[in-house]
Structure formats: C-alpha cells, structure tokens
Design a protein that fits this description.
638 residues; alpha+beta; 6-stranded antiparallel sheet; 4-stranded antiparallel sheet; 18 helices
Length: 638
C-alpha cells in the first residue's frame, strides 16, 4: 500500500496545484473582497500541496529502504545487498526518482513562499503563487502520465542494482543541492512573472525575490563544487572539469543566477536595472529547464545523464516551450510598463555590475552554443564534438576580463564616480598582479592563460578585501562580509585552476611489484597487488608507497568489480598535502607481470574546491545578514 499511497499523494498534490492556479486567477482579476479571500485560500492550498509532495517523496524513500521489488523503479535501480546509504541516495539516482525530487522541492518552496512571505503586495504574491503552481502542475502531469515512480510489476527476486559510478556518498549530496538551486530559480521566475502580471516591478518585488535568488545561487555553487570533486575522484580521469554537456547544464544556470544576483541587488537597494532583473530571472530558469531537458531527453551520452525514451524528452521540451515561451511573451507584452528606475553614470558601481552581467551573459552564450551545436548538427546528420579546447579558448579570456571587472567594481561608488580616482584605488591590486607576472616569467615560465590567471587571481584577492579598509570590522554588515568572502573565494579557485593547468605532472607507467616511478617530487613504489572484498563488490587493490623528502605515505587504489550490474570501475587513491595532491589510479595487467599505474602530482589543486566553498559561504553570510536585518526591522516596526 505504500506505493499506492505515494501515487495518491501525487494526484492530490496535482489537483491542489490546479486549484491554486484557479485561485490565483480569481485573486488577480476580481475585486478586493474576492482577492483577499483568494489570497488566504491560496496560501493554505500551497502549503498543503507542498506537504503532499513531501509525503510522496518520503514514501518512495521508504520503498527503496525496504527493497520493495514489486515497484519497477526499485527493481531497476536498487538491490537488497546494497548499503543503506546507496538505497537512500538511489531514490534520485534515476529518471523518475530525480523528477519526483525536483517536484517535491518545487512544492516545498511554494509552501515556504506562502507561509513566510509577508512584505510583497497581495496581488503580486497571489500571481507569484499561481505561476509557481503552473510550473508544478506541468511536472506533476509529467510524473503521473509519463514517468510514474510508483509503477507496480510482478515482484522480482532481486533488483538490478544502481550504476556503480553512482554508488558514492556524493550521490546523497550533489543532486539535492543542485535541484534546490534549480527550484530556487523557479521561485525567482515565479516572482518575475507575478510582478509582470500585476505591473509591480520595483524595489519591493526585488527585496522579496532576493533571498530566493541568493539561496539558489548558494545551493548551485555547493552542488557544482561537490559534483566537480565527485567526478574528480570517482571517474579516475584526473581532471576536475571536463566540459561534459551535463556539467555545462549545471554551469549555465549558475552563470545566469550570478548575473541575476547582482542585478536584483541593484534593484532592491538602488531601484535600478528593472528590465535586466526580470529578463535574467526568465533566462536563469530557462537554463535550468534546458538542463533538465538535456539530461532526461536521451539526446546526450554522459556518465551522469539519464537516457530515456524520446516521448519523455518531447514532454519536457513541450513544458520548456510553454513556460519559457509564455514568460517571454509576457515580458514582451509588459516590458513597456516597466519604468526605467534610477539613472546612474557609466562609471559607477551599477555600471560595473552591468559590465559584469554582460560578460557573464557572453560566457553563458559561449557555453550554450558549444553545448547545443553538436546536438543540432547531429540532427542534420553531421557528427562533431566540441570539447575543452573550444571552451577554454572561447570562454577563458572573457572570464579573465570579468575578473578584472570584479576587482574594480566594489571599489567604485554608487550612482556616479570620478574615473580619475580609479587608478589610485587600483594601484595596489595592479602592482601585486604585475609582481606575480614578473616572478613567474623569471622563476617558472608557463602558458599565457595560466600566467594571466595567477596574476589576476592575486590582484583580485587583494582587491576583494579592500572594501573592508577603514571599517570597524565588528560592525561591518554581514552582506559586506559575504561579498568579500565570495570574491576572495573566486580568487582562490582561480589560483587552483591556474596552478593545476600550469604545474600538473602526469606519469603513465607499466611496473612490476618492487619497481619505482617518479612523478613531480614523489617516488612511488608498487609494493604488490592483493584481492579485497567490500559489501557489494570485489577488487584488486594495489599498495603504493609514496616518498618525498622524509615523508612516506601508503596509497591503495583499486580496480573494482560490481556483480549487480556487472561493471568494472577504477577507484583512485589520493594523498592530500598542503601544497597539492598525489592522485593514483590502478590500471590493468599487461600479461607479463606488469601493472599499468597512472600518477598525477597536482600542485594546489585543492584551492579549486576550497574557493568554491568560500564562494558559497559568502552567499550564506549575505543571506543570513539580510534575514537578520529584516527581522530587526520588523521588530522595530511592531
């Protein structure tokens, strides 16, 4: 009965989404009395709808934990011998479960808006909740008619198991954080639609939307950072970003959300960039919908794409066209009613943010074209691939230009600034960047892009902390700290990327037990190979002794075999030091007693993920700071 109860909860949630849309129409179009009643009713309906979606997700989790093999989804994606963590995380390690997770977060987010949003105009709130229900209803229909996660089958003896590449703790963290980011962008999209419907695009609307944009951006940052490290250690390829189309599908919403975050801050605080903010809200959600289509339509081949039948892909494509086409039509019809807002000079902090948004948009365009072009070409019978060389050469210089703007922007004044004072303010960051260039040219000549990356990262790091100069640090608002930490985190990540590109040493060798291979400052000896057994796998495990100076460490990379489903994977072993990582992978034997061993020494590569964590922390500090300020203001008014 658990599966039937979960399906019933989905049906009831879908019905409430339809009722929510009806109440939104009444609340926006009718008089004040009916509007007030509709507003009170739509809040209650949205909360119950979110609770039902959450109940449905909880029941699916219970089916996986119980290993109920009479449910098709469980039988095809789980196994009774799997560790409980992978049974739990396996709920969304498939198409239907991931879509249910999506719509659950969507429903819970709508319920949170209904429960906690009190500052927004009543009609705009009603229109916002109606738009959110419209998004949810489409996904409910997709689940109920095309991808039922509770479909029953004659009970199987046991399941087929989960893709071994997904049997990792990262699966429990990476998809939920990304989906929370995507859904946060859906809320921003709903706010934009609601404001356009009621012609209420202004600072109040931006202040209501800003926490959702900021929260979505934090979750996307965490999800992308965690996914990058997961792929880095799990796939055994030694890289942290492969420009895989599915990776790009998560990067594109983040780029749009970053631009939207800057724009909504200007609108909330300075009443500027009104049209920019609405348009970016539409674009950001469009990118999350496009990513959903790419991953679940079956048109991509990727280690973490869900290949499904074309009918499901067509369903999602229809939803994308409906939501985004409708929003763009609404934008085109109502943009003439959106006032220009406060005017600012080109040389100002607002001007810097506009330039930053333009550069982010160009990078987004590059990634979008590079991701979609092979798909479109394949539709016309032309097979081609667009890989890292294209993305690095096309997006790299633009990203470095954006770093310069990031360093300059926070040092500018709002509304208008004196351009003649800017060289004086930028003297120290520019001097540090120039010193790094000279030092690297003399001591360690490297490629142009890594050289510029390290120099600009150093300059950005200095410029990031300069807004704190002359302030009482204990009284500095948390949003200012958030900006400083996030920008400093980007500088740290850029340093890690540049170091990885410039200084990584790689060695592929075939060695016998007792032989030693050198990579970077390390001497690595293969001591031997031994079989080991895990909970649901067996493996051949190498013992590697790594030495540098007086340091001696042992690493144990594995070649694992999973029986359900039959799969061989490489499990890397990584030694982390303060100045980098030694990355080791065990390959196959060559038949003459030798084993393939692949080694990398990656100086300061950990800065990439440390910086990503700092970026997310900066967003969190800003979110907490604005929440605390709002709470204090409400207490003062009461």
């Amino acid at each position: 009965m658990i599966a039937e109860a979960g399906l019933a909860a989905l049906w009831f949630a879908a019905a409430l989404a339809g009722l929510q849309i009806l109440l939104a129409v009444l609340g926006v179009r009718r008089g004040d009395v009916i509007g007030d009643q509709a507003r009170d009713g739509i809040r209650a309906v949205a909360i119950v709808q979110g609770a039902l979606a959450l109940l449905s997700m909880a029941l699916l989790i219970a089916l996986f934990l119980r290993s109920d093999m009479s449910v098709r989804l469980v039988a095809e994606n789980s196994h009774s011998a799997k560790p409980w963590l992978y049974k739990f995380a396996g709920v969304w390690g498939n198409h239907e479960g991931s879509m249910l997770l999506w719509v659950t977060i969507l429903g819970v987010a709508g319920a949170a808006v209904a429960r906690f949003e009190r500052a927004l105009d009543g009609r705009t709130l009603v229109a916002t909740l109606g738009a959110q229900a419209g998004i949810a209803l489409g996904f409910y229909a997709f689940l109920l008619f095309s991808s039922n996660p509770f479909d029953r089958i004659p009970a199987a003896i046991d399941g087929m198991g989960l893709n071994p590449l997904l049997q990792d703790p990262g699966l429990a963290f990476h998809p939920p954080t990304l989906y929370a980011g995507y859904v946060g962008l859906s809320v921003a999209f709903s706010f934009a639609v609601g404001a356009l419907v009621t012609r209420d695009v202004g600072p109040a609307f931006a202040r209501a939307m800003r926490p959702w944009v900021l929260g979505a951006w934090v979750f996307l940052t965490l999800g992308i950072t965690a996914g990058s490290y997961w792929a880095y250690y799990e796939l055994g390829w030694g890289g942290w970003w492969f420009w895989d189309p599915v990776e790009n599908a998560s990067l594109m919403p983040w780029l749009a959300a970053t631009a939207l975050l800057h724009s909504v801050n200007v609108l909330a605080a300075r009443d500027g960039l009104r049209a920019w903010t609405v348009m970016l809200a539409v674009v950001a959600f469009s990118m999350s919908m496009l990513g959903t289509f790419l991953v679940r339509s079956g048109i991509l081949t990727s280690v973490h794409a869900f290949a499904v039948d074309p009918k499901r892909g067509a369903f999602i494509l229809a939803l994308l066209a409906l939501y985004i086409g409708g929003a763009l039509a609404l934008f085109a019809g109502r943009i003439g009613t959106v006032k220009a807002g406060t005017v600012f000079a080109p040389i100002s902090r607002e001007g810097g943010l506009v330039v930053n948004n333009l550069l982010l948009s160009v990078i987004l365009g590059v990634v979008l074209i590079g991701t979609l072009y092979p798909i479109v070409a394949a539709a016309f019978g032309v097979q081609l691939s667009v890989g890292p060389p294209f993305f690095n050469k096309a997006a790299g210089p633009i990203a470095l230009a954006m770093v310069v703007v990031m360093a300059v922007g926070p040092l500018l004044r709002w509304r208008r600034d004196d351009g003649r004072a800017l060289p004086r303010r930028m003297a120290v960051p520019a001097g540090v960047a120039a010193a790094v260039v000279v030092a690297l040219l003399v001591l360690a000549p490297i490629g142009v892009l890594p050289l510029l990356g390290l120099a600009l990262a150093a300059g950005l790091a200095v410029a990031s902390v300069m807004p704190l100069g002359g302030r009482n640090l204990r009284r500095t608002p948390l949003p200012i700290w958030g900006m400083v930490v996030a920008h400093l985190g980007l500088a740290v990540s850029l340093m890690g990327m540049a170091c990885d590109s410039a200084f990584t040493a790689e060695r592929l060798a075939a060695v016998r037990p007792g032989e030693t291979v050198t990579v970077g400052p390390w001497r690595v000896t293969l001591d031997g190979i031994a079989p080991v057994v895990g909970e649901n796998w067996s493996a051949l495990q190498a013992r590697l002794t790594a030495r540098t100076g007086n340091s001696v460490r042992v690493l144990r990379p594995q070649s694992r075999f999973f029986a359900t489903p039959p799969t061989v994977t490489s499990e890397s072993a990584i030694l982390t030091r303060w100045n980098g990582q030694l990355y080791t992978v065990l390959g196959q034997p060559d038949g003459s007693g030798r084993w393939q061993v692949r080694l990398w020494w990656k100086p300061f590569v950990t800065l990439i993920w440390a910086g990503g964590g700092m970026i997310a922390l900066g967003g969190l500090l800003a979110l907490v700071g604005r929440w605390w300020r709002t709470r204090r203001q409400r207490r003062a008014w009461s």
